[in-house]
Amino acid sequence: MLTANTMGKATLGVSGSRWGWKPQQEKYVHMLFDCWEFDEMHHGECQGVDEQFHHLALERGIPIIIHPPIKDEFRSTVCSGYAGRREEKNYFVRNCDIVNEASLMVTVPGHMNREKGGTWHATKYAIKKEKILIILLPTGAVEIYGVQDNGKYGRVYPKAKDFPE
User: Fold this and answer.
1) Cα 99 from Cα 96, distance rounded (Å)
2) Who has the most CB within 10 Å: 3, 37, 109, 158?
């Protein structure tokens, strides 16, 4: 079970929709900050979810490391007060950097098409790298990936048995 007691402090990585989170996703974001202590947070310095997480981390005194994109098209203009700034890179490369530096990855996609967009790219990469991953789906559902009861990496919530036949 993933709790603050079993994980200790975590390095949080964030990727999400440039339109920001939906109310049904936001409640889980606040629960996340209430349940874990973070030694730092990494995000991609884009509009939307990155900005929202940025402000929550600043309010809590969590050091923020930004991974800016090369393109300015969706770059945030309000993410100040960060503790570190990585080199500008294209979206997919910097998303991988965020995942690689995180011990806990949270993704907040704006749509359910798992084949499209940077947030889903970061999500799939986190699964490939077997990171602890929390996906806050736009429907309000949550998926969690980590080490299962059998010791193998995979989806730990909801489990297949959680779905009625």
Assistant:
1) 5
2) 109
Rg (C-alpha) for the chain, rounded Å, is 15
Q: Which amino acid, 110?
A: G
Q: What amino acid occupies position 63? A: P
CB-facing half-sphere around the CA of 39: CA atoms within 13 A: 9
Q: How many domains does the chain have?
A: 1
The alpha carbon of 14 is separated from its chain's Cα centroid by a whole number of angstroms, namely 3
- Number of CB atoms found within 10 A of residue 102's CB: 26
Q: pLDDT tens for residues 116-133?
A: 889 999 999 999 999 999
CB-based contact 76:43 (threshold 8 Å): no
Residue 110 lies in a domain: yes
Higher per-residue confidence, 39 vs 79: 39
